[in-house]
Write a structure and sequence with these properties.
Blueprint (H helix, E strand, L loop, with lengths): L1 E5 L16 H11 L3 E3 L6 H10 E3 L6 E3 L8 E3 L1 E10 L2 E10 L3 H14 L9 E2 L3 H11 L4 E4 L19 H5 L8 E3 L6 H4 L9 E3 L14 E5 L5 H10 L1 E3 L2 E8 L10 E3 L4 E3 L1 H6 L15 H8 L13 E4 L3 H9 L7 H14 L2 H7 L11 H12 L3 E3 L8 E3 L10
Parallel strand pairs: 1-2, 2-5, 6-8, 10-11, 14-17
Antiparallel strand pairs: 1-12, 3-4, 6-7, 7-9, 12-14, 13-14, 15-16, 18-19
Helix pairs in contact: 10-11, 10-13
């Protein structure tokens, strides 16, 4: 049974996140998109955990939850949070984002009670904690041994274990005595599995891809596709811990953002409009040619620095991956409209969903011939090109998202 899961999202209580990120809206959006398992995000925030306790109910003793107003459990919530850890180690300030999954509400309550004694969990849905990774792991595991912990977006410059600005150069330095109790890592929007395969130290770990959504439309822009004979927290935990349990329970593949579209793929200076590939950065010795200040070193460069393999080698037993672009973005480009939230785009999106299935079914499964009587030839061609990877990509850098062109300028009058 296929289960599409997005573990890392945020609530309306996180800084710079949409006020529409309520549990009811998340449930509704997942049904439209075809997401089966969704992270709650932000479970340390007092008001959000109250929402979770009031609006969700456990599905049996599975450790997963459904919305009380829904008539089924097609959308299952898993208790998750992202924390920002800021501390000093090896005489350097470390700023690292970590994702944690909790096995049940009771574990969250116990964890929050202990965290609240010494840290501020009331100012932001993604709390900033002055504690080390090891201290965070120690606290989680002392509350419940089946907390699942892994580093978020591991390569981004500012807040990641391998980030160029405040990260580490190896896994053991980051996690210390807990290195063998961390079973996964999150690729992040600016890297894909193929880039991560270049670092052999990651082979033993399960790679996960999540949206880190700050708004409803971004849910499942990255996701994980599991095959499971039964769905529970323990089943998810065991698959991630063991990489594969048996022929009926495993992570099949991940759905990836084009890493070039991520806002930290290349190096550069946004203020100076400077974007460099790693070779250009090295040519300029890491200095911006305009302002003469150090460039913000991106993910592609950092992977190249730490890699011990060439591109293209897939580790044995590793899941596969596919790259997608969200359906509303495809529609917007096909219609020649800049905004994915424009009325015409949303109208056509709703038309497709109502007549052809969920967004994931349309992007992943639907034979294109079946869409001929549903939407325009240009939108169908856009879906085909995304599936085939026939795109033009301009990499992002220094906090600026990259750009993907499905239809080049000279093709605008086709169809």
């Amino acid at each position: 049974m296929r289960q599409i899961a997005d573990f890392h999202i945020h609530s309306k209580y996180s800084r710079a996140c949409s006020k529409h990120l309520t549990l009811a809206n998340i449930d509704k959006t997942c049904r439209i998109k075809g997401v089966n398992i969704i992270g709650t995000g932000d479970f340390t925030y007092p008001d959000w955990i109250k929402n979770i306790q009031n609006e969700l109910e456990e599905i049996g003793n599975s450790g997963l939850y459904k919305h009380k107003q829904s008539n089924d459990d097609k959308v299952k919530f898993i208790l998750t949070v992202e924390v920002a850890l800021i501390y000093k180690k090896f005489d350097k300030c470390r700023r690292v984002h970590i994702v944690a999954h909790a096995p049940n509400i009771e574990a969250v309550a116990g964890f929050n009670k202990r965290l609240d004694k010494n840290y501020n969990i009331r100012s932001d849905g993604r709390p900033i904690l002055g504690m080390s990774i090891e201290d965070f792991c120690r606290l989680c595991f002392s509350v419940h041994p089946k907390f699942l912990i892994y580093p978020a977006h591991i390569w981004t410059p500012w807040f990641a274990i391998f980030g160029s600005k405040s990260g580490f150069d190896n896994w053991e330095d980051a996690f210390g005595e807990y290195s063998d109790k961390i079973f996964a890592y999150e690729t992040g929007l600016s890297s894909d599995p193929e880039m991560n395969w270049r670092l052999s130290a990651l082979d033993k770990l399960t790679f996960l891809s999540n949206s880190d959504a700050h708004s409803l439309p971004n849910i499942a822009r990255e996701a994980n596709v599991f095959e499971m004979d039964s769905v529970s927290y323990d089943a998810i935990y065991n698959i991630i811990k063991n990489k594969k349990i048996n022929s009926k329970n495993y992570l099949d593949y991940t759905i990836e953002f084009y890493p070039e579209e991520g806002m930290y793929h290349y190096d550069g200076h946004r203020a100076c409009n400077i974007s460099f590939a790693p070779k250009e950065t090295k040519k300029h010795k890491g200095i911006c040619p305009k302002c003469k200040k150090p460039l913000v070193i991106g993910v592609d460069y950092q992977v190249e620095e730490l890699a011990d393999r060439k591109v293209g080698r897939k580790p044995k037993g590793s899941p596969g991956f596919i790259k997608l672009i969200e359906l509303d973005k495809i529609i917007a480009q096909a219609l020649g409209i800049k905004s994915r939230s424009a009325k015409k785009v949303l109208a056509e999106y709703n038309n497709l969903i109502s007549r052809a299935g969920t967004e994931m079914e349309i992007l992943l499964d639907k034979p294109l011939d079946e869409l001929k009587n549903v939407t325009t030839k240009r939108i169908i061609e856009g879906i085909r090109r995304v599936r085939a990877g026939e795109l033009t990509v301009i990499p992002g850098y220094d906090g600026e998202y990259g750009k993907i062109e499905i239809f080049k300028n000279k093709q605008k009058k086709m169809f």
